[in-house]
Amino acid sequence: MAIAIRAASKRQHSAPDINVTPLVDVVLVLLIIFMVIAPALEHGERVELPAILQPDKNQKSKLDPITVTVAQSGTIYLEKTPMPADALPAHLASIHAHEPDRRVVLKGDGSVGYQKVRDVFAIVQNAGFSGVSLQVSQRGGSNDEQPDNEEKPAEN
Asked: Which terminus has fewer CB within 10 Å in the chain: N or C?
């Protein structure tokens, strides 16, 4: 009988102790890994957008826009796929035939010559899209509450 009383008293006094420190360590390591790896997953070249002081506030299109990018090297990307300039009109025309309501956002690196970006802009306009926007980053000194490095589309 004494053995049963001792066993019962041991059960009452021993409470499980949950140590969450290893769980927090693992979560923080995973967070750091994703923060370092996520920017490297974006395909294509890095594009430094020109900055403006007063971006257009209203977004006119509810559909996902088609992105055409002119990189610093002069390479043209259609939705992160490199494409020669002579093949771009045919691809844009086929996209416009299937989805005529979609808009096009043109991203041009700030160091690319104006003529190169204007040529791509003309190709997009000739494909028949109703709206073409130039994507720029917001320059400091404006009266907006948003951060200076946030990218915004500007209607043209």
From this structure: N
Residue type, 60: K
pLDDT band at 142 (very low <50, low <70, confident <90, very high): very low
pTM of structure: 0.54
Block residue for tokens 């055409």: 68
Q: Can you state the percent helix, strand and coil of the chain, rounding each to 5?
A: 35, 20, 45
Query: Apex CA 76: angle with CA 149 and CA 132, to 5°?
Result: 65
Beta strands 81-83 and 76-78 are: antiparallel
d(CA 10, CA 123): 81
CA atoms within 13 A on the CB side of 129: 29
